[in-house]
Design goal:
By secondary structure, the protein is of the alpha/beta class. Helix content is 44%, strand content 19%. The chain contains 11 helices and 14 strands. It is globular. The structure holds ligand NAX. Ligand NAX binds at residues 10-11, 13-17, 41-43, 48, 89-93, 110, 131-133, 135, 157, 160, 189, 239-241, 244. Its EC number is 1.1.1.37.
Length: 327
């Protein structure tokens, strides 16, 4: 049988954590033959640590055959020791009256510390997924704080946007979600993201031709996907949790086990692809194989798409400029 791998999860007692840990432990992320050791991080606060213990009691009670070990941590360096995968879910939420700059600064502090801890303690091949918002910028901060690790091992979650877009396209076309191929989401995990179905196909037919409605694209589809998080909060009274955890599972599974040619969306540091400045952590269509990802090359960008990409890039660069002095 396979040797266990170490999976660190931060914010482990939060609502995404609760929807995520059981699926990792059951083998949905890394495969039904891959034992895992969970290294769980929460803030030192007594209530958070106690809640984490409760989640671990429930994990125990599942008697998962693949769960080879589990630890609670209140400090990043011990939580990330030798870890092969790190899912950075915990972040500082926007409190009442909190300015955007304060939010960026609070998260910059968390993600510089966690980036350094990964740099010092994690496996040299660690795969990092940042879920905590602002996810792209937090991933950028962690990457910049971990100079001894490969930059490309730091990624941000845009998979929820990707999956939301797939679901809207399935509803619009009346076709199964699984039949839709080659969707791309560009940019920031925020309402400015650009979900792009120009290359998407269903059973070989162009989704763009099937829908053939640019007004729907611009006035219905993009706002629906972009504002979906707010719509969930409005309906549920809480932010997306199970769907966010599901997207995190999808992202890590595909990165680790491959997509067999299928496109998925990951936020990854740019090497200048599609004119995005180097190091900006940007949502791109990628394929995964051999434990690595490749940005889909050579896609034509029309005027409307360029305008959308410029807008989401400008937002990301604004965030990045707002934290650069803190790095
Ligand atoms: P919760 O508030 O339920 O849980 C967050 C947990 O993180 C808390 O238990 C808190 O104690 C812990 N935490 C805070 N700072 C920490 C630190 N420095 N180290 C370790 N743990 C820490 O939030 P939840 O609903 O689970 O959401 C978590 C994050 O995901 C938020 O930042 C949220 O904005 C973000 N999201 C990102 C999404 C994406 O697609 N990228 C979608 C869903 C979600 O909104």
């Amino acid at each position: 049988s396979k040797k266990p791998v170490r999976v660190a999860v931060t914010g482990a007692a939060g609502q995404i954590g609760y929807a995520l840990l059981f699926r990792i432990a059951s083998g949905e992320m890394l495969g039904k033959d891959q034992p895992v050791i969970l290294q769980l991080l929460e803030i030192p606060d007594e209530k958070a640590q106690k809640a984490l213990k409760g989640v671990m009691m429930e994990l125990d009670d599942c008697a998962f055959p693949l769960l080879a070990g589990m630890q609670a941590h209140s400090e990043a360096k011990s939580a990330f020791k030798d870890t092969d995968y790190a899912l950075l879910v915990g972040a500082r939420p926007r409190g009442p009256g909190m300015e955007r700059a304060d939010l960026l600064a609070a998260n910059a502090q968390i993600f510089t510390a966690q980036g350094r801890a990964l740099n010092d303690a994690a496996s040299r091949n660690v795969k990092v997924l940042v879920v905590g918002n602002p996810a792209n910028t937090n991933a950028y901060i962690a990457m910049k704080s971990a100079p001894d690790l490969p930059a490309r091992n730091f990624t941000a979650m845009l998979r929820l946007d990707h999956n939301r877009a797939l679901s809207q396209l399935a509803a619009k076309t009346g076709k199964p979600v699984a039949s839709i191929k080659n969707l791309a989401v560009w940019g920031n995990h925020s309402p400015t993201m650009y979900a792009d179905y120009r290359f998407a196909t269903i059973d070989g037919a162009s989704v763009k031709d099937l829908i053939n409605d640019q007004v729907w694209n611009k006035d219905v589809f993009l706002p629906t996907v972009g504002k979906r998080g707010a719509a969930i909060i409005e309906a549920r009274g809480l932010s997306s949790a199970a769907s966010a955890a599901n997207a995190a599972i999808d992202h890590m599974r595909d990165w680790a086990l491959g997509t067999h040619g299928a496109w998925v969306t990951m936020g990854v540091p740019s090497n200048g692809e599609y004119g995005i400045p180097k190091e900006v952590v940007f949502g791109y269509p990628v394929t995964c194989s051999g434990g690595d990802y490749q940005i889909v090359p050579g896609l034509p960008i029309d005027a409307f798409s360029q305008e959308c990409i410029n807008k989401t890039l400008a937002e990301l660069q604004g965030e990045q400029d707002g934290v650069r002095h803190l790095l």
